[in-house]
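Structure ticket #2291
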Amino acid sequence: MTRTASEWVDVIVGQDDPATAWAQILAPLRDLALASTKSGSLDRATVAPDRLIANSAWNLWNDFHHHAPTVIDELKKFWVQTSASGTAILLLDALSLRELPIILAAAKDRGLMPSRVEALGSQVPSDTDRFAAALGISGRSKLFNNQPPASFIFGGTDVYTDVLDAPFADCAGLVPSKPRLFLWHKWPDEPLIHLHAGQDDRPDIVASQTKQQISSPEFWQFMDRMRQGRRLVITSDHGYAVSRFFSDEIKDSTTVHLLRSVFGAKRSAAESPNTPWPRQHLPPLVGRHNGQLVVLGQRKWAVQGGFPHLCHGGLSLLEAVVPFIEFPAS
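Resolution: structure written out below.
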């Protein structure tokens, strides 16, 4: 159910403790996602809370990584829970909260009920490289073909890792009999999100194709294979934003020039002495996190060729909060 603006004020501004605030933001955000079955409805529903955080409670974004429940923390707990079953983790790159009701509806059609459904925080910036770093690896490719480095936090002799880009019809045959799996599939980020990032009609096409894939028998054959003797978590490294729904387009020419020079048409950029960010903006447009400058809230600006319609790396709710779904072993 969509919250009113005053209800979001109570949740976001009415809490002194950032951990409490983020817990009370993520729970209704999950419920909003579950109820948002039409394309674009979740994007519209998050305009109000995104604006409120970015313009009135921006310190919450500074506290996000330290106080919001995160995917990494919950995966660590899931990995060590005692059970007769094995454990399997499937990361779908750039899977967003928009896909949460689609996955659950498709599972229900097959008589499968999740044992847990959450909305959890990604890393900051909300991109693949930062999530990989939180796993103890220098990049996603380090998990390819079961050759993770010793620094990988979910490693072990009984663990199999891989990075997949095959069609789901071929993925079930790639799952080995190891009791523990950590698989990272490049879909939907590749090819859907990045391929169609700059095309105005593509958000709707991406939504349609994503639903088709998630509802397909091939996808669920892959899920069933991973669930054989293993509890399964499906989650993501980051979500993505649809910038045509952004509520704040920067118009001031000096600020636009600065944003272009630092970010180009992206939502985050490495911080260096050559890319200082002035502090005079209130509310702040940019935050500093993990050596990166990160755009706060639903903000875009004019760039040559147009701002990407699909983007991630910044701090808005649909970029930085992702689904976390646990299914029992079969």
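Closing remark: DSSP finds 14 helices and 13 strands in the chain.
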